UniProtKB/TrEMBL annotation:
Compartments, record wording: Periplasm
Listed InterPro entries: ThiB-like
This protein's name: ABC transporter periplasmic binding protein, thiB subfamily
Family membership: Belongs to the bacterial solute-binding protein 1 family.
Subcellular location, principal: periplasm
Single biological process term from Gene Ontology: thiamine transport
Length: 154
């Protein structure tokens, strides 16, 4: 692409409709036709295709990649029921649980179910997934927000 983030934001500034407090507000405006694009999950089109039978949504492929959101389940060290916690975590990785994650949480499962992903879901998977450690994210967050604010305030 060649452009640095401030230049990218400046180039986009005239096309940004609004910045909302959160995803729900932004996605609601998008669904109401207030904006042509919205920053969302790459699995959002799968939701519309499978749950609403609406094939009219697509995820744009970012050549740099898409940030990977990871949701976790864990056993805390102070648990009074470590065996139960272990059994629950093992259950979470079973095919029964992993097979419903795509169409209930609209995310990729930790383990691909034996039957595979639902039809129409696999086509949404980004070619490049990005992941930052908490330390990397913390170090980049404020400079990135500062560059964004400065570029859009001109």
């Amino acid at each position: 692409m060649g452009m640095r983030p401030p230049a990218i934001w400046q180039a986009l500034a005239d096309n940004i409709v609004t910045v909302t407090p959160g995803w729900s507000e932004a996605y609601g405006l998008f669904l109401e036709g207030e904006a042509d694009l919205v920053l969302s999950y790459s699995t959002s089109p799968a939701y519309h295709l499978i749950a609403e039978e609406d094939p009219g949504f697509v995820a744009l492929e970012m050549e740099e990649g898409h940030y990977l959101q990871v949701e976790v389940a864990a056993k805390v060290a102070s648990t009074d029921v470590p065996d139960l916690a272990d059994a629950f975590l093992a259950f979470m990785l079973t095919d029964a649980v992993q097979s419903v994650i795509p169409t209930t949480n609209w995310m990729y499962p930790a383990v691909t179910p034996a039957a595979g992903l639902p039809e129409g879901f696999e086509s949404m998977r980004p070619a490049v997934s990005l992941f930052l450690t908490p330390e990397e994210a913390a170090a980049l967050r404020e400079p990135a927000i500062g560059a964004w604010r400065e570029a859009l305030s001109r």
